[in-house]
Specification:
The protein has 428 residues and is α/β, with parallel strands linked by helices. The protein contains 15 helices and 10 strands. The chain has helices at 61-71, 83-90, 96-107, 111-121, 124-148, 156-178, 180-188, 202-210, 253-268, 283-293, 311-314, 337-350, 364-385, 390-408, 414-421; strands spanning 5-7, 21-26, 32-41, 52-56, 190-196, 228-234, 237-243, 271-277, 299-304, 326-328.
């Protein structure tokens, strides 16, 4: 900093920590690159736990690049993805679960995603994990004591107590695991595929939900040959919308590839909106055939072009035999849009968590570790019930605790850290 920063007051005294200094970044010739402010933080009092300096410059790619070029002259290198947060973890300033929440907070698309990441960053999940761990360590210590003093015969009541405590630990972990389904929706978004036959109105619906003309709308069948993906915020939930290619017989080579993608997208989606052109004479028969091909059974039927149907014919539209919800809709007039949004929100919330305590598992890594822990706790529980040696119980419980410790980073290896932090942005 002494080589590239010149204070505006021309004072050459050393920098005091936590003081914001106003001045200029200069090059080797002394020419000013930018007007900035700078602050230094000593070891033990920075984000990484190491000595650290921060420069606040004007926004813009060129000026930022020029400052970095000047810095890199002095045997300085750019940070790897997530390296600042990784160093903060290694310095013991945050645990691994909180470190992962940093990336989730940065990538949050909605209020719910932000709020969940924030609570995990503040240690809400870590506190719950630690509570479970302490409970497990306490019972582990008690069982190990019986191994150390085998001359003291175990009472039946002791084993019953052990089983009850391990059972309650399993129950606590299962409750956490159950939140992951909703946690995935909060973190990754609720995935909706818009599908149907060509010219049913898929792209029109896609544009209507986005409130912009994103997809090409044409009366020519087969216009959409690939898929389009966009995000919307639906009452705080991130929703991924995919406009898929229309499904019909005898498609062309390119259209056939689009239809193959459409089938795969539908299968992987949380919900399929199947849009139907009810002006077609045989639409009910076509729908019956189409529903046989759809692998995803979470389907919402949208009966489109209701504005074209004569009033007296509307009463004859009856889809109850399909046991699927259906909505009368018009992409042209927007009729049914309120009902559609209400139904989508209901479906998301039906899969959603109780957000009153904001304790939600959003990481698949955490979910997998919790599931492994449950497996070992169950083995320990069975060993107690089968009156097996306490050593076998201890072995299973230790394995379970190790799985829990990998969540918060009490146990880790470089491979685990590499996988976690490679997902981070540069400079985080």
């Amino acid at each position: 900093m002494e080589k590239i920063f010149r204070r505006a007051d021309h004072d050459t005294a050393s920098f005091a920590p936590f003081h914001l200094y106003y001045g200029f970044i200069v090059d080797t010739r002394g020419d000013v690159i930018d007007e900035v402010t700078m602050v230094e933080m000593p070891a033990g009092h920075s984000y990484t736990g190491q000595s650290q300096a921060e420069i606040f410059c004007h926004g813009g790619q060129f000026v930022l690049r020029r400052i970095l070029e000047e810095i890199f002259r002095y045997e300085v290198r750019p940070a790897e993805p997530g390296e600042f947060t990784r160093r903060a973890f290694l310095a013991g300033r945050i645990d691994l679960a909180r470190a992962e929440a940093v990336a989730e907070m940065v990538s949050a698309k909605t209020e719910y995603a932000y709020s969940t990441a924030k609570h995990n960053l503040l240690g809400r999940l870590s506190e719950k994990i630690d509570t479970i761990r302490i409970k497990a360590i306490d019972i582990l210590a008690e069982i190990e004591a019986s191994v150390d003093y085998p001359e003291e015969e175990l009472e039946v009541a002791d084993k019953e107590k052990w089983a009850d405590i391990i059972g309650s630990i399993i129950s606590d972990i299962k409750k956490l695991i159950e939140t992951y389904k909703a946690g995935r929706i909060i973190k990754e978004g609720y995935r909706i595929a818009i599908a149907g036959r060509p010219n049913a109105g898929k792209s029109s619906l896609f544009n209507l939900l986005l409130n912009q003309n994103r997809a090409i709308v044409s009366p020519t069948p087969g216009t959409t040959r690939d898929y389009l993906v966009e995000w919307i915020d639906l009452n705080g939930f991130a929703v991924s919308l995919t406009d898929t290619a229309g499904l019909r017989k005898n498609p062309g080579l390119i259209e056939k590839a689009g239809q193959k993608s459409a089938m795969e997208i539908m299968e992987d989606s949380d919900l399929v909106i199947w849009i139907i052109d009810i002006t077609e004479k045989n639409w009910k028969r076509q729908l019956k055939d189409d529903l046989k091909k759809i692998q995803n059974r979470n389907i919402l039927l949208l009966l489109n072009k209701i504005d074209v149907v004569k009033r007296k014919e509307k009463s004859s539209i009856n889809m109850t035999q399909n046991e699927l919800n259906d909505i009368l809709f018009s992409c042209q007039t927007g009729d049914g849009l309120v009902e559609l949004r209400t139904e989508l929100l209901k479906r998301i919330c039906d899969n959603g968590p109780d957000l009153t305590d904001r304790l939600v598992v959003t990481s698949v890594r955490h979910k997998n570790k919790l599931e492994q822990a449950v497996k070992y706790f169950k083995r320990g529980f069975k060993n107690i019930r089968k009156n097996e040696s306490p050593e076998l119980v201890v072995f299973e419980l230790r394995q379970a605790v190790n799985e829990i410790d990998e969540i918060t980073g009490r146990i880790y290896n470089e491979e685990i850290l590499d996988r976690i932090f490679e997902r981070f942005c540069i400079g985080k």
